[in-house]
Target: B30.2/SPRY domain-containing protein
Amino acid sequence: MLSQIKCRLPSDDNRVCSLASCRAAKMMQCLQFLVEPAKNITVKFKESRQKAKNEKRELLDDNQQFIVCLAKDLSRVCQRSEVLEHIASSEDIWPSVTCRAVILEWASMLESKERPVQTDGWPEKGDWKELALSSEQNVESAKTLIFNWTKDLRAQPEQSVWPGEQVVAALEDLEKQWRRGHLATLQSAMELVFWALLLKELNKEYIPQQWLIWKQKSQKIGAIPYIPQSVWDWISKAAVEVTLDLDTANPDLLISDDEKRMRCGTDRQDVPNYHQRFDGWWCAVAADGFSSGRRYWEADVGEMDWRLGVAKESALRKGFKSLNTHTGYLTLRLERGSELKALTVPFTALPASLIPRRVAIHLDYDKGQLSFYNAESHAHIYTYNESFDEKLFPLFGTVEMAKDLIIRSPGDRSQCLCPGMCLWG
Model:
């Protein structure tokens, strides 16, 4: 019978066993040979990782070590801040220059007598480069200030501070993006926890939004490489319908019937020469302007030359006078496909890595901020900080003839950004 054969077990006892039992015994023998080496490999891998972590920790400079220790203190008292364990364990290490700037910036917040979200008295130390280049004496003084603040934290029970649902959602999103390699560091996550602890007596639901405003106030260029989805939702909820004002469009521009697409034509059109019409630069403004509240709009842009932003109601539109902050324009400009600029005076050159295909613009009139984002990656590009005192009109400009500049309607999230013949069907 095939179901009953003789086999030799590991104990060398001969007996009749079922074919299934014999196979199971042999399988266990094979598995034993596989499991033991696997266990050894796992142990060696863990030891190797721990050794690498220890070596990393030994190589950290004083500023990096300070951030590691601060992450431990913040994580200890803040509920749902497990994301900081990556920093506390030296798994996520920030560049030393970033650590210096963060230490000085946070210290300037702590030494401010009034909370930044309760007043317009924002910390003065806002230039990221200046912070990074501050003297060692300033850095040490900043560390002392932060260290004294953390003494109070250490006196609090573990996991005693609830950061709020909005903060937790943002932390989880930031950690996910970091794990996927979309974020270089977890700096944004640690900043959010810092804010939750510093401003714990305020409405927690507004902390992520106030953090965004603060970042854009203190760091105008590329402040946040990824804006958490919950914060992005808050920004985009201010979306409005924007259409072009035909009476302001340069005669060389072709405007679609829905007044949401524009490109340069080959022939100048015969149109009335209204005083509000651009006759030099290839621009047009929106039909409606804004003088209060928050507004959000998006535009698909060309690959070589475009201009977006706002124009003040009093800004002159005739001729080729520079459209910059001195003439009443707050704009972003791409030239020659690679030169991205904020048209301040003098202009502010922006990294080529920030060049977007779809631009999101958020106007917070009451807070005095006009911010530009990459609408696809949710990354901050540039923010103008100014006190507005007159109506602002969305501005659009292009010199491209092969691709339309397209104003997106609220809720239109089509991913088609191909340079098709949009105006011509």
Remarks:
- The two ends are 79 Å apart (CA to CA).
